[in-house]
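re: that chain from earlier
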Amino acid sequence: MGSFSIWHWLIVLVIIMLIFGTKKLRNIGQDLGGAVKGFKEGMKDAADEEKPATPAAPPQQVTSGQTIEGEVREKTRS
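^ sequence. v structure.
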């Protein structure tokens, strides 16, 4: 029994083409392709909305008017 052979599928395809016609099948294919394209664009837009456009800057620390001066030196290995 198993699955159908290639000849069975060709006969089914010919019957479908006779019933619906090639123009109607082409329109169905275009509609389906447009729906898939719209779905992909919608998923892409949804993924872009979830990610922030720019990373948030760390909050500034407010000190009580003190200025700390320092000097940057190269790190030496001991």
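The first helix runs from residue 6 to 20.
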